[in-house]
Batch of 2 targets.
Target 1
Amino acid sequence: MELRRAETKALEGEATFRALAENGVAGILIITEEGKVAYQNPRLSAMFGFEPGEDMVGRSMFEF
């Protein structure tokens, strides 16, 4: 029961983060320890001149 409650809270937290990141006015970039883009939100894509849906994920952050 406690594990299920913890899983539910984790999923809710992820949903909250995703909603904030996807709809926020600030550009958000998450990179791996190797310097590769793991996530970019739509605002960051627009800031760098990418088309909607064009992905920076997997590329080196030093390309930008």
Target 2
Amino acid sequence: MSLTGTPTQPVIVMQSVSEAAPALPDYAALLAQDERAQLRRLRRQADRDRFVLGRGLARSLLAAATGKPAGSLRFARNSHGKPRLEGAGGIAFNISHSDDLVLVAMAQDCEIGVDVERHRPGLDFDALGRFIFTEAERAAVRACDPAERVTGFFRQWVFKEALVKALGTGLARDPRRFQIRRDAGDAIAEFVGGEADDVGPGWRLAGLDAPKGYSAALAIRPRAAGLCGAHPILT
């Protein structure tokens, strides 16, 4: 398990499902009744294991932050399905998973989103990108060296998805209303839609260290000035 952060900074955990297998029964015991019902609806064992690990890690981190027993924590969802901790006192969290990896992030007084994706060669990346990328983003992926195009696509994807998740709107609004561009190596969110800007300024986007064959990213914004310190593993 990879764990980083301090009590005053975002905390990020990345763990392999296969390595965490011995702990899954203990994590499953922490789940609330509605989570157990959601777990039963998952048909594939791999999906069930990822769900248990994600919720188990989140509950463990949130319990440490709040001082409450992990099994007593209760979650609610916003109108677009993003989970939040009831009575959180300003704590936000987010969960992502792909194949054998689960990623969980937690922060105080910030909006936060994370995404992790396993690289999957052989996809029609240009066709896929039409649904989430702007033309400029698709052009940036196409401009990658052919040998790096898979990595380029998923690196762009995780930045975009992390911000979508931090915003908490899911795909209810067109993800092409903003784009992620690079400026001197930094990833910057830029609103390009014709309607009212619901993205806003102040977002910090960064890639996260991930095993070979995966890309991961974080999107974070303080709810007030001076909060959400820099994260030590941002790259």
